[in-house]
């Protein structure tokens, strides 16, 4: 039975990843910072990525075949408030993991999950936020360690992941507000610009992509994971209001069209991946999750 070690196992994506690999028959080790069981069958590992020595001992003991690195500070707004913590988690934590892999399980395959909104020095002189800078540095370090030490590192850059579960993403926050408004008419939702575009992808489709990259991807290669279609916040809001039978009031500071951004994901499609869940299915599952909880 193959072993997979998943960092950030108690998070939004981590919980879905644990369930996916359990269903595929893997021996799943879920790394969490606090005592939070991702799922009963998951073998929980209390692990702080900033403790390099302990991390190396953990990997030496487990000897995983695959490592899925999901642990991160993924909120751009929070990165303004605490840039040091963001850098420590996303950059130093990743470096510690790579060093632990080098020492304990150099034969393993590791997938580093970055972001499509990382800073791109070819497009802009300065990053938009500390989060984007941290993800750029995370990927730079990962590619460098792969080259320096001949590690089998692969890189995924997902777009905005949505789906059922506890998430701080805009779709989940808006869904909760729509449901609450049916009981509390004082609820409203505020946008900076309601006509901004985003590429929204179901987290369950993303995990299938992660698995494909781990098994069939190329060493030190980067894969963009996106639906390939963008939607305005206004479109998302209208769909959620209709699906939830809610008339939640919406407010926006700006109401102007922004250029659509399309992410090129041909490398991933060469692995015969494509999204299977429609936007409506994802939004409906989000609403059902919060109605049940």
UniProtKB/TrEMBL annotation:
Residues 4-226 form the NAD-dependent epimerase/dehydratase domain. Coiled coil: none annotated. InterPro entries: Epimerase_deHydtase, NAD(P)-bd_dom_sf. SUPFAM superfamilies: NAD(P)-binding Rossmann-fold domains. Belongs to the NAD(P)-dependent epimerase/dehydratase family. PANTHER family: DTDP-D-GLUCOSE 4,6-DEHYDRATASE-RELATED (PTHR43000). This is NAD-dependent epimerase/dehydratase family protein. It comes from Rossellomorea aquimaris. The lineage of its organism: Bacteria, Bacillati, Bacillota, Bacilli, Bacillales.
């Amino acid at each position: 039975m193959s072993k997979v070690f998943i960092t950030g196992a108690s998070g939004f994506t981590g919980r879905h990843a644990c369930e996916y690999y359990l269903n595929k028959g893997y021996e799943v080790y879920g790394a969490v910072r606090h005592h939070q069981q991702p799922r009963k069958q998951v073998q929980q590992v209390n692990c702080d990525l900033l403790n390099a020595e302990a991390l190396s001992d953990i990997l030496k003991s487990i000897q995983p075949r695959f490592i899925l690195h999901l642990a991160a500070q993924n909120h751009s707004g929070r990165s303004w408030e605490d840039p040091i913590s963001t850098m420590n988690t996303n950059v130093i934590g990743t470096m510690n993991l790579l060093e632990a892999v080098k020492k304990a399980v150099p034969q393993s395959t590791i997938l580093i999950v970055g972001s499509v909104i990382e800073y791109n020095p070819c497009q802009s002189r300065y990053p938009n936020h500390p989060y984007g800078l941290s993800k750029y540095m995370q990927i730079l370090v990962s590619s460098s360690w792969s080259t320096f030490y001949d590690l089998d590192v692969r890189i995924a850059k997902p777009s905005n992941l949505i789906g059922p579960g506890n998430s701080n993403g805009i779709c989940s926050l808006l869904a909760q507000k729509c449901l609450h408004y049916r009981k509390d008419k004082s609820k409203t939702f505020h946008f900076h610009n309601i006509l901004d575009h985003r590429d929204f992808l179901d987290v369950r489709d993303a995990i299938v992509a992660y698995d494909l990259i781990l098994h069939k991807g190329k060493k030190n290669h980067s894969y963009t994971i996106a639906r390939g279609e963008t939607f305005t916040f206004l479109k998302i809001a209208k769909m959620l209001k209709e699906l939830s039978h809610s008339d939640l009031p919406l407010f926006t500071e700006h109401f102007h069209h922004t250029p659509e951004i399309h992410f090129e994901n041909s490398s991933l499609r060469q692995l015969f991946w494509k999204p299977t869940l429609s936007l409506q299915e994802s939004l409906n599952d989000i609403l059902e999750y919060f109605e049940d909880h």
